[in-house]
Structures are given as structure tokens and as C-alpha cells.
Write a structure and sequence with these properties.
This protein has about 325 residues and is an alpha/beta fold. The chain has ten helices and 14 strands. The strands form two sheets. The chain has an eight-stranded mixed beta sheet with strand order 8-9-10-7-11-12-13-14, covered by helices on one side. The relative contact order is 0.16.
């Protein structure tokens, strides 16, 4: 059983706790919040009474073996570094950090302290992503793909009203690309590795970050188009094209449909399996396995995926003059 604490008390933290504890491999033992009242209110739901209001206090809690961090993006680096230096495993919500340099430093700190740093890309741990990956050869030579993750955020309405929510703030290292866009980019990288180059045509919004846009990842013999957004919505499926047919998925995350459309017969083969009841449960199972078995090979593969992604998003931001406060 991995005793863990959480930093961040939003809906994603709530989802991780439920998914993790459903596996019987994790036990929530502490909550971190800058406001004790907020921490106590959140912990009460899970019968957790230990609340830390400082990173130093949490780092010194010997009953905590791992920490799940889902705070605003710009806080990730210092919070994760503090926990890693305390020899606690860290599950870090995407994006890991604001910059490549911060990411590389965290990897070095984790290694020197003998603990794991894992970016919480839940979708590549889903059973139906693995179904897709294991059946990708059905396509034959790959011609391209169209990956879609565009959903209108209620916080964009705040932007239209003249406000600057954290997720759309340069100060907090926000924007659609690093919040939503990393999911389809991660899917592409997990399947095909590092692209040769990438381009981005963003919608720059009033706060100075991107609200959405189209990314193109260029591989040796094909390209992947990514439509991602938090300022407009799309119901388009995600598709992979090949000589022998097309894979059609309902989405990039929470995949419950994996259909193979045979190019010659025109027949559709349904391949999807029953996914976990809770949408973060599958990642919690794998992350617990990596920690408990100290599976450094699996951790290294996930680290490299994260490394490629942050280099891609950093390049795409620089192409379009999107500069976070920490970079200024």
C-alpha cells in the first residue's frame, strides 16, 4: 500500500484519489493546502485529518511515501522538487513544468534521491489506447492521422469578461496547448516517437496565451494534424489512416470506441474492450506497479515521452511568441 498525499484540491485531484483508492494499492493519508480550512474540508470527504499548510511540513511527514500534484502549472516545479528532495515519489499532473530546464532538473533530482517522477498522462494507460497500439500494424504503411481534443472551457467565458483565469495566464504558465494539446501530442509520441518537426497555428486570446489551434507533427513519411482547443468545441473523432484501412476512435481520452474500417472490404471491426469504471484508475494501477516494483525501465520510457512532449510544446510556443512569466 502506497501512502500518498495530494497537492491541489480541484476536481482532477478528487478523480485521482477515487481512481487510486479503487485499486487498493493507494491510501490517502494527507492533504496539502495553503488554507487549513480548505484542506480540512477536502480531507473530510476521505476521512483524512492530516492537513499540511507548508511544503516543509509535508516534506517532513514520514507517513507520506508519494505525492500527487495537481496545482497551477507554474507551481509544479518547486512543489515537485521539494517532495523529490524529501525522497517521496511524485505523480505530477501535466504539464510537468513550465520549461525544459525545470523538467530536466526534476529528473536529475528524482534520480539522485532514488525516487520516481511520473507525469500523469492517464490516457496512454487506458486499456483501449493499448488496444489501438497493439493493433496499429493492421494499417500497413501509415499515411497520417487526425487527432482531436477541443472543448469549450467555462473559464474562457471569464476571459471574454475581461478576467485572467490561471489556466489562461502567462503568469501561471497556462494556455490550451499545455493543458489540452498535450493529450493528443502525447498520444502521437507514445505511438510514433519524436517527430522530425512541428508547427502550430494558434488562436491567441486576450490574456496572451493560446486558446486553441492546429498543430502539425511531421514524421518521416506522414504527418499528424491535431485540432485542440479550450475556446471552441469539436465533436470530430480521432482517426489514424493507413494503406489497409482506418482506425476510428471516439476521442483521445476516455476511449470507449476503437473501430478498424477495412479499406478493401469496407467492413468495420470493433476492437474496444471494457474500460475501467473510473477514468484515472488505469493510470493509478500502472503507477503503483512502477513504484512497488521499482520498474526503472518503464519509468524511463514514460520520462522520455514527457521529455519529447515538453520540447515540442516549448518549440511551438516559441514559434508563436508565447512566453511564460518564468521565461521572461
Amino acid at each position: 500500500m502506497i501512502n500518498f498525499a495530494v497537492i491541489g484540491t480541484g476536481w482532477i485531484t478528487d478523480s485521482f484519489i477515487k481512481g487510486a483508492q479503487a485499486t487498493d494499492a493507494w491510501k490517502l493519508v494527507a492533504v496539502y493546502s495553503r488554507k487549513e480550512e480548505t484542506g480540512k474540508k477536502f480531507g473530510f470527504v476521505y476521512d483524512v485529518t492530516t492537513v499540511h499548510t507548508s511544503l516543509e511540513s509535508l516534506a517532513g511527514d514520514s507517513n507520506v511515501h508519494a505525492v500527487y500534484i495537481a496545482s497551477p502549472n507554474s507551481f509544479h516545479y518547486e512543489q515537485a522538487k521539494s517532495m523529490l528532495n524529501a525522497k517521496k515519489h511524485v505523480i505530477l499532473e501535466k504539464p510537468t513544468t513550465s520549461t525544459v530546464a525545470e523538467f530536466e532538473n526534476l529528473c536529475s533530482v528524482a534520480k539522485s534521491n532514488g525516487v520516481h517522477l511520473i507525469e500523469a498522462f492517464r490516457h496512454i494507460q487506458e486499456v483501449n489506447f493499448k488496444v489501438l497500439k497493439s493493433n496499429l500494424s493492421k494499417l500497413g504503411p501509415i499515411y497520417g492521422a487526425s487527432l482531436n481534443y477541443a472543448t469549450y472551457s467555462s473559464r474562457y467565458s471569464n476571459v471574454l469578461n475581461g478576467e485572467t483565469p490561471n489556466i489562461f495566464s502567462l503568469e501561471f504558465s497556462g494556455g490550451s496547448l499545455v493543458d489540452i494539446g498535450v493529450y493528443p501530442i502525447c498520444m502521437a509520441v507514445a505511438l510514433f516517437g519524436k517527430p522530425k518537426s512541428q508547427t502550430y497555428k494558434p488562436v491567441i486570446i486576450a490574456t496572451g496565451v493560446d486558446g486553441g489551434g492546429v498543430v502539425v507533427l511531421n514524421y518521416e513519411k506522414f504527418a499528424i494534424s491535431i485540432n485542440q482547443s479550450k475556446c471552441y468545441a469539436s465533436k470530430a473523432p480521432t482517426e489514424f489512416y493507413g494503406q489497409n484501412g482506418t482506425f476510428v476512435l471516439n476521442a483521445v481520452t476516455d476511449i470507449d470506441r476503437v473501430d478498424f474500417l477495412n479499406a478493401k472490404s469496407k467492413k468495420t471491426e470493433e476492437l474496444a474492450q471494457q474500460k475501467a469504471e473510473l477514468n484515472l484508475q488505469e493510470e493509478a494501477v500502472e503507477f503503483a506497479r512502477i513504484i512497488n516494483e521499482d520498474d526503472r525501465e518503464a519509468a524511463k520510457k514514460l520520462e522520455e515521452i514527457s521529455r519529447i512532449i515538453i520540447n515540442i510544446t516549448t518549440d511551438l510556443r516559441k514559434q508563436n511568441g508565447i512566453v511564460f512569466k518564468v521565461e521572461q
